[in-house]
Write a structure and sequence with these properties.
The protein is of the alpha/beta class. 24% of the residues lie in helices and 16% in strands. The protein is built from 5 helices and 12 strands. The relative contact order is 0.17.
């Protein structure tokens, strides 16, 4: 995060938008969801780059648990992505709840993954048996899809270095209330991202996405 912030502040991007996607994280070391959302080291770092206009897209985690207790996904200013399958079901491995911002395909995704490591280098990025991309599942597959869609919105909207409005545009353009087999109270789990309908016409830039009111755990 510090490296991205430094590049943005330096002007080296020449006005091009910046975006971070991170498939990292683990259990927040606090049972207090408010701390996990606002006060972890990850949260402070993400807030710093968010203030520079840089969206941060993160994988929600694969524990089938409440996403509010996993960092950095729980961070308020992170775009936290859960995982669905081809039939729009929330995948059992995906974290869920009030700290999810959007769901995206994350099951059985063709992915580049190293089959082995030789020294400090990856030997190959395809499956040895099929000589093709590996098929992988997880919120780490879903998060990059959302990052790519945000990047498309940023391009379609002609945004400069501050790409934050692209996040609102993506969430406003998401398909709502289509997920199946969901028993979660928070409606943020009912969003599927999609690319701009027509990249030749910039989406509306003056509308802000207002998330539904979803109480954090233990605030219910």
């Amino acid at each position: 995060y510090d490296a991205v912030a430094s590049v943005v502040k330096s002007g080296l991007l020449n006005g091009a938008p910046a975006l971070i996607t991170a498939s990292v994280g683990g259990t927040c070391r606090s049972g207090n969801a408010t701390y996990c959302v606002h006060d972890t080291p990850y949260a402070r770092a993400i807030n710093d780059v968010w203030d520079l206009g840089v969206p941060v897209v993160v994988a929600a985690g694969n524990s089938g648990d409440d996403a509010c207790f996993y960092t950095p996904g729980a961070t308020k200013n992170a775009i936290n992505v859960g995982s669905t399958d081809v039939d729009d079901n929330v995948v059992s491995h995906s974290n869920y709840g009030a700290c999810i911002d959007v769901m995206a395909p994350g099951k059985d995704i063709p992915s580049a993954a190293a089959s082995s490591i030789v020294g400090n280098e990856y030997e190959e990025f395809v499956d040895d048996d099929t000589n093709d991309y590996r098929i992988m599942s997880g919120t780490s597959m879903a998060a990059p899809a959302v990052a790519g869609i945000i990047a498309q919105y940023a391009e379609a909207m002609g945004l400069g270095s501050a790409a934050r409005p692209a996040v609102d545009a993506m969430l406003l353009g998401a398909t709502k209330n289509v997920l199946k087999k969901t028993n979660y109270r928070c409606r943020t789990n009912n969003l599927i991202p999609r690319a701009p309908n027509d990249v030749d016409h910039a989406p509306v830039t003056d509308r802000k996405y207002v998330p539904p009111s979803c109480a954090l755990p233990r605030e219910r």
